[in-house]
Amino acid sequence: MDNLRIQMGVQKAFSVVEKRRAGKRHTQVQEQSGGDVASGSGGVGTSRQTGKGKGHATAADDDEDEADISKGEPSGEQEKEIVNRFLKLIRDEFYALIGWKSWSQVAKKFPRMMDDELAKFKAETMDAPVCTTKQFRVCLSRGWKKCSFNRHARWVFVAYILTKSKNGHYAHLSLPDDYFTKENIGQTLDSHMEYARERWRRCNSVDTVRQHEAELKKKSVNSRKATLLNSRLKTCTRHPELADHLFYLAKMEAVHMSADESGGEGAQHPPVYHYTPPAWQSEQLRLFFEELDQQYREHWLRPSGRRRSAGNPPRVRVRSAKDADFEAVAPRGLPRCFYNQEWVVRLKPWQVSDLDIDDVDFDLAMHAMDAA
Question: Predicted confidence band at 7 (pLDDT cuts at 50, 70, 90)?
C-alpha cells in the first residue's frame, strides 16, 4: 500500500511539473511570435483552417481527430509485442558486440578484470584496456553500475544503438522513435546485465560459501538503501509544495543512496548509524536529504490521524567524518546543483556527457516545506 501511495505521488509530481513546463514553453512561444497566437494571423497555435470557414472546427473534424488518435494508439497486445521487439533488439546487439557463442566461451573470453588493469583504465595509460564498438568488453565479475569500466562500456553501447537508430538500421522493426532514448536503452541493458552476470558467475564456479555470505551482506545493504529511498519519497509525497523535488528524487534508485553502518554496541535505542555520503552529492543535496530523514522520523513518532506504526523506529543516521565515497554511483539527469562540482570537474568528458546534467535553475532549500 505504501508503494502504491508513493507511485501515485510520483505520478502527480510528474504531472504538475510537466504542466508547469508546458505553460512556460507556451508563454515563450507567444512572446517570440509577437502576438500572432492571440490575433490568429497564422502563428503557432492559431485555429485550424477548414473548408467551412477560417478558425472554426466542426463536430466532424473532432470525430476525425478522435478516429486518427484511436488508429495511432496500439492496443495492449500490440504494445507488448513492440516492447518485446525492443528488448530482443538490445539483447541481440549486446551479444553481437561481445561475440557471444556460449556462456562458457564468454567466461573464458572475459575473465575478471584485474585491479591493475582497472587502475590503468582510470589513469588512461597507453596500455590501458579499451572498450569500443570494435573491441567491446565488459567485466561481468565487477559491479555493473559501480565499476567505472562497465559504466564506460554502457556509455559506448548506448551511443552505438542511438547512432544505428538515427541511420535507419532498425527501420524494419517498426519501433517508435521515442523508444530510442538514452534512458530506455541504458535501463534495458541494465536489466539484462543482472542475468548475464549471473550466468557468467555460474560458468566461473564462484558460488562458494564465502561468496554466498558476501552476496547476502550486499543484499542487506541494498535493502536498507531501498528503505531509505522509500522513506524520502514518502516524505515528499506528504508535501505538495515539494512536487519539483519529488520529480527529481523519483529519478534516483536505491543504489544512489548512501550506505550506513552501526556505530558499535551501546545502550542507545534506537542505535545510531554512521554513513559516508557519496562524493557526487552536493552539500545542498546532503542537507536536503538530512532534513527529509528528520521529517520522516518526526512523522513516525507523531503520525497525524492514526496510531504510530509498530516495529523498530527509523534509523538515526549521522554523517561520518570519513572522506566521501568516490565509488558511489551517481544518477543521471539531475539539476546541476544536485552534483558536487568539485567531483564533476574530475570526470572525463564521456562521463560528464553520460551524466546528462539538467541545466535548469533549481532551489534545493527546504524553506517551502518549513513555511507549510
Answer: low
Task: Give the pTM.
Answer: 0.54
C-alpha cell at 187: 535501463
Short-list 155, 128, 117, CA closest to 349: 155
Quote the CA–CA distance of 303 and 313 in Å, as a whole number. Answer: 13
Burial 197-224 (b: 16+ CB within 10 A, else e): beebbeebeeeeeeeeeeeeeeeeeeeb
Residue-wise pLDDT for 305-342, tens only, equals 677 776 677 878 888 877 788 888 899 999 999 999 99
Q: Residue 124, by phi and psi: left (phi above 0), alpha (psi -120 to 50) or beta?
A: left
Residue entry with cell 565487477: 142
pLDDT in tens, 37-66: 333 334 433 333 334 444 444 444 444 444
Cα 183 from chain centre: 8
Strands 272-275 and 260-262: antiparallel
In three-state secondary structure terms, 179 is helix
Residues 6+ apart with CB under 8 A from 156: 131, 132, 133, 136
Tell me the residue length of the chain: 372
The cell for 294 is 528528520
Closest CA to 243 of 76, 83, 20, 30: 20
